[in-house]
Design a protein that fits this description.
The protein contains six helices and nine strands, in the order E-H-H-E-H-E-E-H-E-E-H-E-H-E-E. The chain has about 210 residues and is an alpha+beta fold. It is globular. The relative contact order is 0.14.
């Protein structure tokens, strides 16, 4: 294991790879649908291709909008993020996943970094319930800062050892990739705004908490 350090250019490359990984499937499906339209004269096949293109284009758009909020520079420096918009975006993102979203965010607006932390924890929570379940997301703005909670409940909910290590101890494996960089990015955001992570695990449930450090 090594301490939590990464060159800015490497972080940018890995985040870009993560975004590309998420959108390459629907973009590839659009390309396949267009090939069918070029080659097929059967009306039913052409209808199938158009349906595939429409659904895949929407999926790609939703993934890009979510990635813009979770990883990008949405709103510019010092911006506040409308959490109603973030909740809508998160709900659309999870439509094709097996997780249901229970959005209980009290704060109407959050600073950009805290909003990104919330959405990154939401992604990590979704990964713990690959068999399906419910993600309950909350955030409150207090005198000392923002407190964020994400509870993932579902059959065989499980958090990987590597993600737990990064969030709690600030250490990462020697080899980073487009997936393992995400908890690293969440920790970097949290350090920037003085938040610390806590994790609670029980059968069928994994809870993430980000709150101001004492």
């Amino acid at each position: 294991m090594t301490s939590l350090k990464i060159a800015p250019v490497d972080l940018a490359a890995l985040i870009a790879s993560r975004v590309c990984h998420d959108v390459i499937s629907p973009v590839g499906a659009i390309a396949n649908g267009l090939e069918v339209l070029d080659e097929e004269t059967d009306p039913s096949m052409r209808d199938f291709a158009m349906d595939l293109i429409r659904k895949s284009a929407r999926q790609a758009s939703v993934k890009l909008q979510f990635s813009r909020l979770a990883f990008g520079a949405s709103g510019g420096a010092g911006a506040q993020i409308d959490m109603a918009d973030a909740g809508r975006c998160a709900g659309e993102f999870l439509e094709r996943e097996k997780a249901n979203l229970d959005w209980q965010v009290d704060a109407q607006m959050l600073p950009k970094a805290e909003a990104k932390i919330l959405l990154n924890l939401l992604l990590l929570g979704a990964n713990t319930i690959a068999r399906g379940g419910t993600l309950t997301v909350g955030a409150t703005q207090g005198e000392n800062g923002v407190t964020i909670s994400v509870v993932a409940a579902g059959d065989r909910a499980r958090l990987s050892d590597s993600v737990r290590t990064v969030l709690l101890s600030g250490e990462v494996p020697e080899q980073l990739d487009a997936h393992s960089v995400q908890p690293l990015y969440a920790v970097m955001l949290a350090e920037e705004v003085g938040l610390g992570f806590e994790i609670a695990e029980e059968e069928g449930k994994v809870s993430f908490l980000a709150r101001p450090k004492a």
